[in-house]
Structure to design on (912 residues):
């Protein structure tokens, strides 16, 4: 099966290994991965920030790129997938042409773990590992797309030692521009999340969104914590041995 | 503001309004139980009501006597609809019933007098199994004070008046009155540190005598 | 006036009471438990949302019917365009009737119109009777939560307050504090000339008001005094008792996790001829105060709200900052939309800006209000309030990302030079994004973008 990878701007610049792991995983699952080169940003930060004009421009650019392709569009990010599925159609819905593009793209878009579990029924190979992981349920994927069980099931299927996280579905405090517009609250929420992670006994926090992991990881690093953050693709692809 | 001017502003606002479409199921889901009476008893008890089940009206009278414990009470006028011969019972047992009529010209004095009576006895026209709720329809001959100003509120409830849901209950109520109250357990609050205390401003204890 | 951010910083400096987080979480869990044991919860919420939509779509028609019904029952209706008109009416009524003492049921709309202050100024002693509101009133403070007004205080503080203000012996036992309040307020209920309540719902076809309480004060205030005044936000209507039953099924479950509260008090007019007790007069004051403007705005959906407080309990921002920092009668997610909508974005734009859009509020809202969407709508109208740096940065980012070749060039450049400013994948301490780096490390661009890796890899 041919799939299009929408790798997301954060992964592209800051966490390309997540993108590489995603490719590896999809190829293991028997997919032929294509990467439309003109992709940039789905428009989520602008949209959330209230910059509608800019968000529309980014959406149009993204839709032009993706609509010129075929096959499922796989995204290693719950929030970017939710953006393409729920918000892009509304953003450009007033334009007949882009409205249609947005609908078509939304129908093809799948977050990575839902794609693996629900569309492909794919179980990755067992991964050996001496780590104990806990799963943080990123908000937009959770509430926008119902992503909660799929990542945990995949982790369990590949033999990762996993502990439950109290407050798993509480927001980590990133929220895009929120993290720098309202830093006090953002950090307070991060500290609550870190306290819950420390209490879980895990040495690794796993998520489906590098934005959350960047925020949580930045806090962990600042306090010198040995706890690591990993995107689920890296674990499932066996890159975290 | 004049009514029509006020409503005109509302209508004008609606003209350009961006309201989500009114989509939905069209009707409320129905609520049913295999054994509504058991469900009622279980839920009322959970809500801290003291529930007594009596097979007959005569047993109900004994239950009331036990709760009254010789104290004076205020009561509704039409309790013989749930306990035949109620008036005779009151007399023969020597119970002390206090009148609860509030006269508009002596309101404060009447309330002071009525407010000192420890027990109130009412019936309930309908009760809700889902939540253990009794629906108390005040009105003519049915003072509100009997279910409100007292320490112990006794509700006489024929079991065949228990229906599954609130919607069912609302259909059975005679609404031609100024006050209907759905009561679920005694008065309570969690305002202090979310700790539950009972008996704040309303009755401390709710006694439900299920008859039949 | 202080900014929201300043008030949050102050709250953090003082230490937001742990009780807020604990209390909010408690309510949140109770709501989840209630939903779990109520098989019809989801379709009931769907129907509740639909009812709100249907009622608002013809609100003026239903309001007219409601007013006619109230009058038919012997009540009096006053339409108040704003807070001043509402207060003037009620104060005028109190004066004409020689009222010196009023007892009040907890009501958000009466706080919104500042009714207590207006009455006190006119010489009417106005006593809050909801235990939490009574405590808040004694302390001279404002409530911190719309359902649990005194969430921010512990029992010792309340004990001290009672000892000081009521002249009783100190106790911090909740049961004993309860008794003290019961006795003190009982006397007020039975001697007040006016009882003032809000209205959880007004029923259009029969002119009744539904009041939902647990303590019994809602009944005492609307039975003992000779005049009952109900103040109602104009959007709080249902059409009939079938609608009312649906709304009641989701209200208490969402607020406290109860199936129904202790008292659902349905009042239709003053006492009728022949009835043994009840008020002699019944007035309903229907309040606009910015609601019609909200109805005509892009955030009209916020008027679905039935004031259950579930969104506050779920909100991580509320749990961390508490209710007072919001600076408004309505805190929490509901307040973030309602406050700017009623009072203006110019003064309140910070409220909708201070959210991570996590969506926990929408998830628990009994009528499924899409609060995140409404927050974005308000942000659309207030980007000019953000810092110039942020706006410029966003504009540049948008420009770059709509030109793919520029995007690839810039990200490649950042990757190549990142090594200068970073170590082990993290940025060195340079004065960029101080709001981030004050408390968190900032990741550095990777040495090679995914784009470049893919290109080199070949097809």
């Amino acid at each position: 099966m041919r799939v299009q990878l929408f790798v997301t701007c954060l992964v592209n610049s800051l966490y390309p290994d997540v993108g590489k792991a995603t490719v590896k995983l999809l190829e293991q699952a028997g997919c032929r991965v294509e990467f439309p080169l003109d992709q940039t940003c789905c428009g989520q930060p602008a949209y959330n920030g209230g910059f509608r004009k800019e968000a529309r421009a980014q959406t149009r650019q993204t839709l032009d790129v993706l609509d010129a392709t075929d096959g499922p569009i796989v995204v290693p990010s719950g929030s970017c997938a939710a953006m393409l599925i729920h918000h892009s159609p509304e953003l450009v819905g007033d334009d007949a042409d882009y409205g249609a593009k947005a609908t078509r793209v939304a129908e093809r878009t799948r977050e990575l773990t839902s794609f693996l579990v629900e569309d492909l029924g794919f179980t990755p190979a067992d991964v050996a590992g001496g780590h104990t992981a806990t799963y943080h349920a990123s908000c937009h994927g959770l509430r926008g797309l119902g992503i909660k069980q799929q990542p945990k099931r995949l982790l369990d299927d590949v033999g990762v030692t996993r502990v439950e996280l109290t407050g798993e579905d509480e927001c980590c405090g990133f929220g895009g521009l929120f993290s720098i517009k309202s830093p006090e609250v953002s950090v307070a929420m991060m500290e609550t999340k870190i306290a819950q992670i420390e209490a879980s006994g895990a040495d690794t926090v796993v998520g489906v969104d590098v934005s959350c992991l960047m925020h949580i990881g930045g806090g962990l690093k600042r306090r010198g914590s040995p706890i690591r953050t990993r995107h689920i693709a890296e674990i499932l692809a066996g890159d975290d041995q | 503001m004049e009514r029509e001017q006020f409503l005109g502003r509302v209508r004008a606002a609606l003209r350009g309004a961006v309201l989500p479409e009114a989509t939905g199921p069209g009707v409320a889901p129905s609520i049913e139980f295999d054994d509504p009476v058991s469900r009622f008893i279980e839920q009322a008890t959970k809500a801290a009501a003291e529930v007594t089940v009596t097979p007959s009206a005569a047993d109900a009278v004994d239950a009331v006597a036990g709760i009254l414990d010789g104290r004076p009470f205020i009561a509704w006028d039409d309790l013989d609809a749930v306990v035949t011969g109620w008036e005779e019972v009151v007399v023969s047992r020597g119970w002390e019933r206090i009148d609860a009529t509030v006269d508009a010209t002596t309101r404060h004095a009447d309330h002071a007098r009525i407010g000192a009576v420890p027990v109130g006895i009412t019936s309930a026209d309908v009760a809700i199994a889902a939540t253990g709720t009794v629906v108390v329809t005040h009105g003519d001959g049915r003072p509100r004070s009997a279910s409100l100003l007292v320490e112990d509120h006794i509700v006489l409830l024929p079991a065949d008046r228990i229906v599954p849901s609130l919607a069912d209950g609302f259909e059975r109520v005679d609404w031609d009155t100024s006050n209907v109250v759905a009561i679920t357990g005694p008065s309570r609050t969690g305002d202090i540190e979310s700790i539950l205390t009972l008996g704040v401003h309303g009755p401390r204890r709710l006694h439900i005598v299920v008859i039949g | 006036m202080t900014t929201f951010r300043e008030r949050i910083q102050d709250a953090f400096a003082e230490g937001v009471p742990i009780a807020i987080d604990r209390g909010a979480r408690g309510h949140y869990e109770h709501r989840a438990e209630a939903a779990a044991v109520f098989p019809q919860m989801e379709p009931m919420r769907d129907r509740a949302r639909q009812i709100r939509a249907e009622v608002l779509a013809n609100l003026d028609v239903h309001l007219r019917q409601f007013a006619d019904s109230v009058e038919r029952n012997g009540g009096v209706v006053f339409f108040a365009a704003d807070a001043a008109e509402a207060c003037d009416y009620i104060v005028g009524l109190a004066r004409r009737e020689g009222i010196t003492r009023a007892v009040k049921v907890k009501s958000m709309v009466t706080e919104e119109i500042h009714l207590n202050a207006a009455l006190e100024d006119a010489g009417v002693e106005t006593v809050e009777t909801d235990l939490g509101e009574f405590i808040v009133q004694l302390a001279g403070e404002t409530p911190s939560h719309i359902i649990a007004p005194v969430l921010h205080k512990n029992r010792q503080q309340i004990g001290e307050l009672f000892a000081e203000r009521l002249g009783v012996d100190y106790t911090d036992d909740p049961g004993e504090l309860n008794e003290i309040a019961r006795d003190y307020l009982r006397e007020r209920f039975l001697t007040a000339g006016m009882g003032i309540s809000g209205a959880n719902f007004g029923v259009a076809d029969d002119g009744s008001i539904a009041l939902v309480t647990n303590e019994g004060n809602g009944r005492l205030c609307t039975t003992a005094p000779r005049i009952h005044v109900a103040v109602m936000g104009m959007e709080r209507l249902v059409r009939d008792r079938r609608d009312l039953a649906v709304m009641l099924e989701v209200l208490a479950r969402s607020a406290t996790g109860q199936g129904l509260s202790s008292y659902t008090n349905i009042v239709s007019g003053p006492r009728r001829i022949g009835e043994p007790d009840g008020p002699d007069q019944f007035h309903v004051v229907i309040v606009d105060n910015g609601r019609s403007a909200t109805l005509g705005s892009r955030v009209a959906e916020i008027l679905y709200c039935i004031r259950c407080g579930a969104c506050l309990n779920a909100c991580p921002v509320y749990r961390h900052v508490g209710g007072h920092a919001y600076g408004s009668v309505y805190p929490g997610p509901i307040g973030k939309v309602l406050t700017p909508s009623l009072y203006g974005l110019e003064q309140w734009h910070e409220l909708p800006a201070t959210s991570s859009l996590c969506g926990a509020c929408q998830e628990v809202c009994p009528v499924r209000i899409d609060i995140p969407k409404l927050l974005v709508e308000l942000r659309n109208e207030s980007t000019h309030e953000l810092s110039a740096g942020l706006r410029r940065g966003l504009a540049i980012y948008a420009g770059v990302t709509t030109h793919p070749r520029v995007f690839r060039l810039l990200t490649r450049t950042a990757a190549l030079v990142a090594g200068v400013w970073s170590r082990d994948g993290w940025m060195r301490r340079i004065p960029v994004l101080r709001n981030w780096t004050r408390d968190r490390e900032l990741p550095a661009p990777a040495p090679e973008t995914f784009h470049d890796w893919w290109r080199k890899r070949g097809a």
Observations:
- Chain C touches chain B through 105 residues (CB under 8 Å).
- DSSP finds 24 helices and twelve strands in chain C.
- Chain C has three domains: 38-152+191-289, 304-385, 388-457.
